[in-house]
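Below is how a single chain appears once it has passed through the pipeline. First comes the sequence as given, then the structure the pipeline wrote out for it. We keep one example in the README because the format questions we get most often are answered faster by looking than by reading.
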Amino acid sequence: MNVAVPGAVARYFEADARRDPDAIVALFTEDAVVTDEGRTRRGAEEIRAWREGAASQYQYTTELLGAEVADEDTVLVTGRLEGNFPGGTAVLKWRFALADGRIRQLEIAP
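Resulting structure:
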């Protein structure tokens, strides 16, 4: 990863690259919310189901293109995914809201 991001955000992308749902779920607060592909998941159980279901359907790599710390609790990341999903490449934006060093909200959008 060539883009500098705060601890929990860096660990999220590292765990994602390893396809490690346990490590990913551990990064979120108990009441965390994830919005991806128009669906919202709340809490550890739904976030785990997302990581083991929809988010694991395809093999892909993520190249981080840029990051911005919007304020002390919000990090915006832009990256490119390449893999065996329809279209083969996608540029996505991740908006992380942090609380006490953990992720309390994640929004993923094109």
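Helices lie at 7-18, 21-26, 43-52.

See the next section for the split statistics.
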